[in-house]
Amino acid sequence: MKASQFLISTLKEAPADAEVVSHKLMTRAGMIKKLGAGIYNYMPMGLRVIRKVEAIVREEMNRAGAIEVTMPVVQPAELWQETGRFDKMGPELLRIQDRHERDFVIQPTSEEVVTDIARQEFKSYKQLPKNLYQIQTKFRDERRPRFGLMRGREFIMKDAYSFDKDRDAAQISYQTMREAYKRIFDRFGLQYRAVRADSGAIGGDLSEEFQVIASTGEDAIVYCPNSDYAANIEKAESLPPAGPRPAPAQAMAKVATPGNSTCESVAQQLGLPLAQTVKSLVLATDETDEAGQVVKTQVWLLLLRGDHEMNEIKVGKVEGLANFRFATVAEIEEHFGCQPGYLGPVNLKKPVKLVVDREVAVMADWVCGANEVDFHITGVNFGRDLPEPEVVADLRNVVAGDKSPDGKGELLIERGIEIGHVFYLGTKYSKAMKATFLAENGKPTEFEMGCYGIGVTRLPAAAIEQSHDERGIIWPDAIAPFTVVVCPIGMDRSELVKAEAEKLYAELLALGVDVILDDRGERPGAMFADWELIGVPHRVVLGDRGLKEGIVEYQHRRDTEATKLAVGEVLAHLK
Ligand code: ATP
Ligand code: MG
Ligand code: MG
Ligand code: MG
């Protein structure tokens, strides 16, 4: 590729709504362009990265014996009614109607459609096992799309679905996918952990998330450095603590704190890991003196359950979690548009139901800690018919420093970005959709299923969170938009530079290297700044003076200085 023929559109400034570094850098590097909330153009530079991610995923899925298929983005509601998900799924599912007022959904995932294929195609146990996958656009009407491609509404996912004749076979399919995922994430050069995740009603350990370790991650993961124990915070367990640990009710008690408390100071006071408090909404009442000065702040920690995340709440200031300042009741009331005095002070003499009279997503479906056992406040979602949230007695299932369940060491907590998820489904979908095959005994039998997702467009963002510096992105070779950039200096002035640059470019192309020649005629400073921002891992600079001595300069994106190479050594060096 020649830069003059390509689209390079780097920006000096990051957009105002970019909170995390990957969003800032992908936008500044001209890789993505926002079209609407959670909806992005994948610009040519970004698309090259995405295509490389897809290629690796595709290669490893094929190697693992999965078969590629493409299922429609727009799917008839009938199939979704068979499983009940058309009605049961919340507003994340985008429902649309065609000109005949027939219902459709935009696929957030494809269990229904793939099960429909299976019940038509896989008639006999002899055809099993089968694993169908696609790399396809998804739409989820996320409550709060943010962080660029990390939590988009439209995004690309690789989703695979396995069909087996029985439970044992399904476990083998699951393990095969799990191994494939490890190979995939190893090839991306990412630091990640496979952690146990909730497998819902089915139980057991057959659900794991692949989490890229990053301080900006939305998930908390618990692991033991001495063994392979790792789980997400929702699923994590520990051996009973040896020493006394405050009883949960105490730990969640209303505490008097100075008005200028921080998340950290209260976490410390309550003996909670910070990672857990950041998943909490903090309700506070200020006690003021006659002059209106805050003399003390009463604080409740409301631990949100399920999908709710702290940052979604946007009470107070949530820039870096450590800076989080507690919101006062008044601030929360204002934020949710409640009447002053609506929320508090809350009488905790008995369990209280806090009814919110309009759809305020965050105030629904949550449970809080209380100052006495069983005196919890629960949120109720008005307007939507969700089951009542259960009251959680001990929200602190694991604290950093607890003993790991295998007894091999102390647990640590760190943050992660979910880039993949493998899940054993059992017969949940095949039962609902009457998807059967003829078993060896001649009887129609429901498929045992598994589903396996990878966030194709989230992955580059996660990679950047893990690998960048103040100048820009540092791509691993495997998914860099270009692996090598050739930067000639004064190409328009020096025939020698032009000839050598073109020659090197042609030779690298012939070797199959993904190289770009920067023939735009930019000055060196601007040219280098662009490529450092874009994050191309290998750079070769050719100048007239060096070339006359037979020398060019090589620099890896991580190097602080360039290395001089003889012209003849370049190819060997880059191979
Ligand atoms: P999250 O917990 O981040 O909302 P999820 O558990 O809802 O993700 P899955 O249903 O397990 O996601 O989907 C499989 C993969 O798709 C996830 O592991 C993630 O990498 C990716 N993914 C999910 N939601 C999004 C999104 N809004 N934007 C980009 N990628 C996403
Ligand atoms: Mg989700
Ligand atoms: Mg998740
Ligand atoms: Mg998941």
TrEMBL record:
Q: Which Pfam families match?
A: HGTP_anticodon (PF03129), tRNA-synt_2b (PF00587), tRNA_edit (PF04073)
EC numbers listed for it are 6.1.1.15
Q: Where in the cell is it found?
A: Cytoplasm
Q: Which InterPro entries did the record assign?
A: aa-tRNA-synt_IIb, aa-tRNA-synth_II, aa-tRNA-synth_II/BPL/LPL, Anticodon-bd, Anticodon-bd_dom_sf, Pro-tRNA-ligase_IIa, Pro-tRNA-synth_IIa_bac-type, Pro-tRNA-Synthase_IIa_type1
Print the keywords alphabetically: Aminoacyl-tRNA synthetase, ATP-binding, Cytoplasm, Ligase, Nucleotide-binding, Protein biosynthesis
Reaction(s) catalysed by this chain, per the record, are: tRNA(Pro) + L-proline + ATP = L-prolyl-tRNA(Pro) + AMP + diphosphate
Signal sequence bounds: none
What the entry lists under PROSITE patterns is as follows: AA_TRNA_LIGASE_II
Primary localization:
cytoplasm
Gene3D superfamilies listed in its UniProt record: Anticodon-binding domain (3.40.50.800), Bira Bifunctional Protein, Domain 2 (3.30.930.10), YbaK/aminoacyl-tRNA synthetase-associated domain (3.90.960.10)
Show the GO MF annotations.
Answer: proline-tRNA ligase activity
Q: Which residues form the Aminoacyl-transfer RNA synthetases class-II family profile domain?
A: 38-476
Described by its record, this protein's role is as follows: Catalyzes the attachment of proline to tRNA(Pro) in a two-step reaction: proline is first activated by ATP to form Pro-AMP and then transferred to the acceptor end of tRNA(Pro). As ProRS can inadvertently accommodate and process non-cognate amino acids such as alanine and cysteine, to avoid such errors it has two additional distinct editing activities against alanine. One activity is designated as 'pretransfer' editing and involves the tRNA(Pro)-independent hydrolysis of activated Ala-AMP.
Quaternary structure and partners: Homodimer.
Q: Which family does it belong to?
A: Belongs to the class-II aminoacyl-tRNA synthetase family. ProS type 1 subfamily.
Q: What is known of its domains?
A: Consists of three domains: the N-terminal catalytic domain, the editing domain and the C-terminal anticodon-binding domain.
Put simply, this protein is called Proline--tRNA ligase
Native organism is Comamonas terrae
